[in-house]
Amino acid sequence: MSNGNLTQSGGKPVVGLALGSGSARGWAHIGVIQALEEMGIEPQVVAGTSVGAIVGGAYVTGTLKPFAEWVMNLTVKDVVGLLDISFSGGVVKGEKLFGFFREHHENPEIEKLDKKLVTVATDMKTGREIWITKGPMLDAARASCALPGLFSPFNLQGRWMLDGGLVNPVPVSAARAMGADIVIAVNLNAQLVGGHLARDARSQVEGEEGSDEERSIWHKVMNYFSTEEGEDPGFFDVVASSINIMQDRITRSRMAGDPPEVTLVPLLEDFALMDFHRAKEAIEEGRALVKRHEADIRGWVGSAVADRV
Questions:
Q1: Which residue has the higher pLDDT, 195 or 204?
Q2: What spatial distance separates the first Cα and last Cα of the chain, rounded to whole Å?
Q3: Phi and psi at residue 272, in whole multiples of 5°?
Q4: pLDDT in tens, 22-70
Q5: 216 tagged catalytic
Q6: Which partner for 227 in 186, 222, 234, 286 could form a disulfide, CB atoms 3.0-4.6 Å apart?
Q7: CA-CA distances (angstroms) from residue 277 to 11, 50, 187, 212, 264?
Q8: Which one of the listed residues 21, 23, 50, 173 is annotated catalytic?
Q9: The model's pTM
Q10: Which one of 23, 144, 163, 275 is the catalytic residue?
């Protein structure tokens, strides 16, 4: 559903981004946006699911640059330090992580932004797909990334929300409904990966400085998230792999019914679910991905301009 009121001056089409779910692979969204801006393409509509909601929120609030600098400096220790471990509703409450975001990043009301933002969540009680277009940006992002088994559900206006990837992993439909003429979708679910931390995470933790208590906490987290070669799949491996498979099938079905003009698939097959400390690699792949598809992207944007003349 296109909204003619959003058409930019000069007849330029409104470009929308559909930023998909995919945990640590989602840092590729940063590189995609950076490369698009370098091409002179400034998306005016952003629809984000899960990690896509976080990166999309940083973009529409004008804080993508400092956000990118922060994630590129994350270490395994930093990632574990931001996890407030809980086994009530999810492994991570999310309060520590999003509390950090509130201290260091903008948190305006979505409806007051110059660019349009919609995040996708799942109503835990009804299973309905919820589009969040009002209220504090960080609440909208947090509601979208309550991944079952990892992040605890989030209470938004009296309703418990789960990860939007359960119903709409790559929210093309939401971007169109918000007025996008051209939708560029970033699909992180085309390559299934294991749900464990990277194999080098244990060795990195061994090399980190810290107290015996800190090391003990880190090792407990490592043991929970990772499965050694030759072992039976651990609890988190089973949960994460199941979610990945489900989201991949849902993505294929949703995108077949409402295909975007351009689909970008980052090549991050060796990324595990919790590899948030590998942001630099993901961002570089996002940038390279746009370069590989530059002709296709310009072709769509250019043809839309010609159709309006």
A1: 204
A2: 21
A3: -90, 165
A4: 888 999 999 999 999 999 999 999 999 999 999 999 999 999 999 999 9
A5: no
A6: 234
A7: 42, 18, 20, 22, 22
A8: 50
A9: 0.83
A10: 163
